[in-house]
Structure formats: C-alpha cells, structure tokens
Amino acid sequence: MTREQLDCFLAANGLHAGLDGVLLAPEGEQVGAATLSGEGTLLVHVCEEGYRQGGDEVKAWWPEFRSAWMIVKPDGETEYGDTLGPDQVICDVCNAEVTIRPVPVGGGGYAHCRRCFGDLGLPFPGRVRPYESTERWRPVIEVNGGGLN
User: Fold this and answer.
1) Residue 30 pLDDT > 90
2) What's the pTM value of the predicted model, to 2 decimals?
3) Would you tell me which of 57, 71, 97, 133 could form a disulfide with 14, CB atoms 3.0–4.6 Å apart?
4) Is the CB of residue 58 less than 8 Å from the CB of residue 122?
5) What gap in Å lies between CA 68 and CA 85, rounded to an integer?
6) Angstrom distance (rounded) from CA 144 to CA 139
7) CB < 8 Å & 24+ apart, contacts of 90-99
C-alpha cells in the first residue's frame, strides 16, 4: 500500500495512525497496525472481528481497495472490474450508501447499512461501536488491469 492509499483508507474508515504505527478507531480502540517493509512498501494489518450465529458468519469489515467485480470464465480466464476505494460501499440489501464503520457483514456475506443490519436483529460484531464516517478521499490512483500499482 502506498502512503496515499493508506491516507485514503484511514480517512474513509474514520481511523487514525498513532506515532508507533498503531491504527486507532475514533474512541481509541486499536484495530490494526501499519509497518514499513524492507522494500519501502507499507504493510497494513487490520483486525476484522466477528462471530458465528447458526450457520452465518457476522463480521466487522474495514473496507479497502478492491475490485468492483470478478468473473471467472469457463476457460479459466479471470476478468476484473474497476477498483473501488474504501469509501465506496453500498448496502447489498437496499443499495444505500454505507457510511458506518466498521461495515457489518452478515446474512451470507453481504454488506449492510445501519438500518438493514438492524433488521437482522443481530448484535454488532466486535468491540468497536459503529460510527459514521462520511469522509471522502479522491486521490488519483493508477490502475493496471483491475489491480493497484
């Protein structure tokens, strides 16, 4: 991850980095760490807490840069969609923009907005209480075949 990508990830998720590289939620809970590798690349480790209820896994997701979609063709070729930023999350149930962080994921692996997750009647996963993160970061990021440079 580049420094610019880390800045975008932190802003979109309402996180901040401490002096020692510890990643903190707004109320001071440690959720991960960022370290510099020998090649000068930032390595970011983020804890995604969750639980199982029945056959369903419920987790707290910190969105990162990812492909909008992926198709694996019968011949094994894989195609990727455009790269989405960590601030680009929609509810898989109602298509509303998801502004809470961490994003609750459940009901078969679907991202939920606050209202739709509340409709599930499940406790929020993890120790970080959900909070609004409406920060938007739009840096220019080069994309090569769906992956980040």
Assistant:
1) yes
2) 0.79
3) 133
4) yes
5) 9
6) 16
7) 91/116, 99/132, 99/133, 99/134
CA angle 143, 94, 12 (to 5 degrees): 40
What whole-number distance in Å separates Cα of residue 143 and Cα of residue 124? 34
pLDDT, tens digit, 9 for 90 and up, residues 54-99: 888 999 999 999 998 999 999 999 999 999 999 999 999 999 999 9
Cα 135 from Cα 12, distance rounded (Å): 5
Confidence of residue 136 (pLDDT cuts 50, 70, 90): low
CA gap 26, 33 in Å, rounded: 15
- Of the candidates 111, 20, 3, 9, the one whose C-alpha atom is nearest the C-alpha of residue 61 is 111
Provide the phi-psi class of 68: left if phi over 0, else alpha when psi is between -120 and 50, else beta.
alpha
**Exposed e or buried b per residue across 74-86, where buried means at least 16 C-beta atoms within 10 angstroms of its C-beta:** eeeeeeeeebbbb
Three-state secondary-structure class, residue 121: coil
Q: Where are the domains of the chain?
A: 3-148
